[in-house]
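forwarding from the other thread:

> can someone predict this with iron/sulfur cluster?

sure thing
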Amino acid sequence: MKIQMVYLVHFHDLTGKDEEELDVDIVNVNELIDHLEDKYPGMGKLLRKEDGSAKPNNIAILNRKGERAHFVKDFSIKLNDGDHVTLI
Amino acid sequence: MFGWSGCILRINTSDGTVKRTDVGDDLRREYIGGRGLATKLLYDEVGPDVDPKGPDNKLYMTLGPLTGTPLSACRMTVTTKTPRNGFLHDGNMGGFFPAELRFAGYDGLVLEGSSEKPIYIFIDDDKVSFHDASHLWGLSVTDTHIKLREELGDPSIRTIIIGPAGENEVNAAVIIGDLYHASGRGAAGRVMGSKKVKAIAVRGTKEIPIFDPDGFMEVYNDFWKELSPDDCIDIYHRPWGVAGDSLATDYIKTVGGLAVKNDQGFDEEVSSFNIGSATIRKLLVRPMSCFSCGLPSCSQLIAHGNTVLKMHTGSIIGLGSNFGITDINEIMELHKIWTELGLDVSVSPTISWAIEAYQKGLITKDDTEGIELKWGDSNIIKKLVHKLVYKEGQFGELMAEGLKALTEKYGGHDFALHVKGLDITLVPSRSMYGMGLAYAVNDQGADHCRIYPPYPPNIDAVPQHIELPFDVEKAAIRDIPDEKAKLIKWSFDSRAILNCLTTCVFLSRGKLFSDFSYFGRALTAATGVQYTHDQLMKIGEKICNLERSYNVLNGNASRKDDTLPKRYLNEPFKAGGSIGMVVPLDRMLDDYYKERNWDLASGRPTQQKLSELGLDFVVEDFKNKGVWSQ
Ligand code: SF4
């Protein structure tokens, strides 16, 4: 599936990009983070605590067409083709 | 005396006399300083019979016992009775002037009377002198600042200045501190202009006496440990320290709610507005903080041709997307013009209303004296702002008064984005219900600073011993009305405290967001007077009740004033991250008055609440005026 990523501030510094389109074979946000960690080592540490849950001082916002944007606190949340994920 | 200086400087601009007064121990302890002190002085001294446009109105600039200490304590409250509607107005100024005034030995100053000719005032520790400012009248803020420094022979003197907007007594005129720090958009610049005071310069060399220096250093260390960028549990603290508040544009755009073309909610245009923190970081020259700020880069100097600007997200949205302008260079140019004129950027909704009204046929070229109004053209905006500041023609006069005056003449109330006559600052209300309620019940009008940051504390950062009066998880959900009244009451009360100290609101991150014992310990160490978390919260509540009471007595404020532009109540977003959202205000308003123990029908404090807070003098005034029998 295709996921539109937006990287802000230290996520921008880590990736060197403002945004990119990913074409990935994943199911949920956890797998998205695993993919990003492979591509940009250090990404996982910015987003996850040691127990794998979401860190309270970074934000991932999910935008999906026709739905309201929401903060992703549970990384098992499913992703759809065309979703936008913004990392702040 | 420790912490406080014990001296308020009263400057009579009519006769050039100066008095040094002491407010006394009781008032100091009860109202602390800054906003609390100014509110009490305004309540006592500027009553219903005072014309806010006349010489009997006063302009208070008050500091707190922490101002000038190294705890981001760089702020000053600027308070007056606003000519907009007779309500109380206060602004909060950062930068360097407030600390310098403290070093000169004052807890604040009061401008009284009205000079016959333009003057500027120089405060040099104990010496206060008046100077002719005829040669400065009409000059831009920067030119005035440069000339003052030359004339006074001190290249690092601190200044507050009004531009032509203040001189011409425009309602949206602000006071600019040290070139970059604006304050008092509720017409404080206009009141300073009505007194013919172009500027105040200050030089201070005194020390602030601290009661318990070791204790103070202990709290100081605890503050900055808690605010360490790597450990602080707050979603914005770290990114804010890198990208400054331009980040808020990215956030607003992502969740939906970026104001486009008078906040009409055009989603396709939101997606094409690409200015945000990445743009600003590319232009970064160097970080630019206020006195003693611990954040590396809350705001930044950015390159604009061969000069620099300090620009906040308010300008990116207000002077960019809200006018349909998408070129950063044009936005920077407008920002520069605005600042030099001493005009607040949040007058943007007055101008965007004019363009929408023109397009809807409510106003014509006859009204605008030949200017065709359309979106996305910065030259048209420049012409309009010139008309507004110099009150050119009847349309210019009306714009200078603001949206209330414009809509009384032309209609178009439903898309006039103001509350209580004060233009919306474009922090979105439809996409954050808490923000919508906060705008509506704010005694100043549509001002976001009373609740900043506009979200609840992170649950992981709330210490065990702190019991917050709301469900944090529910309060954080932006599109349900639940818990918003409790959150907003708590936010208003707690921000009031920070405005008394006077520290920056951006200090309230991590544990400092919810645990005010940090601030209590700092106050106690500085002054020797005991302040606990609970005491401070009560003081905050008392100030908020006194402010509302002032508006009741001076402007007949009631529930009818606590409302939002119709656009935010009736026009849902058709797409984007806040699709379908409009503010469910009535339900939240009832909840809010219940939380405050205010009368549900009138939105006014009850006798029981006022007495509980020790505001018996207000009870008497309400009885004498028959407030409860109306
Ligand atoms: S956080 Fe920003 S506004 Fe606050 S003191 Fe620092 S620089 Fe000034």
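The mean pLDDT of chain B is 94. thats all i got for now
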